[in-house]
């Protein structure tokens, strides 16, 4: 799977990022999302594969989306039998967020990207469009930190595992009312907090890279983004845990369901009988082979954003594979017309 589609999925996220980046700073959140979705769909449908979207974020806020259950790839077409050897092709599941950080794109802020994760059928947790409490930390702290422990305890553990004082730790938290207590506790413990308005996938994955100056992600974001983050962290060996949040009172924004009880019932219908289960990266992305790809739309901690120049654009992507155990940063020049010159950097 890695060899067959590894290179193609880079182009999928690149195309989505380029499309969305054209709307950077235009204040049009939905449009930035829509063009990314369309570009992603169009490029995915040119890949020789039998894909199925299992996470197509967007349901929560009526944003444009690649639909859950949507079939993608050449070999899902009606005439697939004539073009593809269906007996040999493995079926793959895909989790997408074509524009992760739509607000960031709309307002020209850092940290947005086009992102997806792939595994064989059943290899990714089909997360409901709920919220998720998340804990991400570097590989050195994997299985030492635990989302059941207090933030203070986890900070002491990360500090020991990394051999740096708590004062030298930076924790990313989404800037939301629901995190007031969490933010206070992290500050009281002595660590520093980086508040982000959006984009917790990038923050989670950054924990796995020393030099990112991000040592943990704590707090509640969206569950689909949790699965995508987990896919990358599973490949990178970083720590990731997630627990679904079904009580609107905890989230405060009240966007999920009408009540705690109706949400538990909804989860049950989806086959989730233990709504309080704590999932680790290996459970959220359990497939034998997991692939992750992201391309920066606006500049971020891990990747630069799309840079347009006369007749072309330059992008930076990150492709991670559990099979080849690689994390590749891919720097690409895209030639739309005949550019007068190609930008070296
Ligand atoms: O910031 C985010 C928005 O993602 P998108 O809609 O694809 O632009 C995500 O990284 C967050 O995980 C999440 O969606 C968010 O925390 C949930 O939204 P909110 O209710 O504003 O906290
Ligand atoms: Mn998102
Ligand atoms: Mn999105």
TrEMBL record:
Q: What is its EC number?
A: 3.1.3.11, 3.1.3.37
InterPro entries named among the record's database cross-references: FBPase_class-2/SBPase (IPR004464)
Per UniProt, the keywords (alphabetical) are: Calvin cycle, Carbohydrate metabolism, Hydrolase, Manganese, Metal-binding
Reactions catalysed, semicolon-separated, are: beta-D-fructose 1,6-bisphosphate + H2O = beta-D-fructose 6-phosphate + phosphate; D-sedoheptulose 1,7-bisphosphate + H2O = D-sedoheptulose 7-phosphate + phosphate
A molecular function (GO) held by this record is: fructose 1,6-bisphosphate 1-phosphatase activity
Principal EC category: hydrolase
The pathway entry for this protein reads as: Carbohydrate biosynthesis; Calvin cycle
Where does the source fall among the domains of life? Bacteria
Describe the protein's quaternary organization and the partners it interacts with. Answer: Homotetramer.
- Biological function: Catalyzes the hydrolysis of fructose 1,6-bisphosphate (Fru 1,6-P2) and sedoheptulose 1,7-bisphosphate (Sed 1,7-P2) to fructose 6-phosphate and sedoheptulose 7-phosphate, respectively.
UniProt lists the family membership as follows:
Belongs to the FBPase class 2 family.
UniProt protein name: D-fructose 1,6-bisphosphatase class 2/sedoheptulose 1,7-bisphosphatase
Q: Which organism is it from?
A: Microcoleus asticus IPMA8
């Amino acid at each position: 799977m890695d060899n067959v589609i590894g290179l193609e999925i880079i182009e999928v996220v690149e195309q989505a990022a380029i499309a969305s980046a054209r709307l950077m700073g235009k204040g049009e959140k939905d449009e930035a999302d829509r063009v990314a979705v369309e570009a992603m769909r169009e490029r995915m449908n040119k890949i020789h594969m039998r894909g199925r979207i299992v996470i197509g974020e967007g349901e929560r806020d009526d944003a444009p989306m690649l639909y859950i259950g949507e079939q993608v790839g050449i070999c899902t077409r009606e005439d697939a039998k004539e073009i593809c050897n269906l007996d040999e092709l493995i079926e793959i599941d895909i989790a997408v967020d074509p524009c992760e950080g739509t607000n960031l794109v709309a307002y020209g802020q850092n940290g947005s990207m086009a992102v997806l994760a792939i595994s064989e059928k059943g290899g990714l947790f089909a997360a409901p469009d709920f919220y998720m409490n998340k804990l991400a930390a570097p590989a050195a702290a994997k299985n030492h930190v635990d989302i059941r422990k207090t933030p203070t305890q986890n900070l002491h553990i990360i500090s020991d595992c990394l051999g740096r004082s708590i004062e030298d730790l930076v924790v990313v938290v989404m800037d939301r009312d629901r995190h007031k207590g969490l933010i206070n506790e992290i500050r009281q413990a002595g660590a520093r907090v980086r508040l982000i308005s959006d984009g917790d996938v990038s923050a989670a994955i950054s924990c796995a890279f020393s030099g990112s100056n991000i040592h943990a992600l704590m707090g509640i974001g969206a569950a689909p983004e949790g699965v995508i983050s987990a896919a990358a962290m599973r490949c990178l060996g970083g720590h990731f845990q997630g627990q679904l949040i079904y009580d609107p009172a905890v989230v405060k924004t009240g966007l999920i369901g009408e009540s705690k009880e109706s949400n538990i019932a909804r989860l049950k219908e989806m086959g989730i009988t233990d709504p309080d289960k704590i999932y680790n990266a290996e459970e959220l992305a359990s497939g034998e082979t997991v692939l992750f790809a992201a391309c920066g739309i606006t500049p971020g901690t891990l990747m630069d954003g799309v840079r347009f120049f006369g007749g072309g654009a330059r992008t930076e992507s990150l492709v991670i594979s559990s099979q080849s155990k690689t994390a590749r940063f891919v720097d690409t020049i895209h030639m739309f017309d005949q550019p007068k010159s190609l930008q070296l950097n």
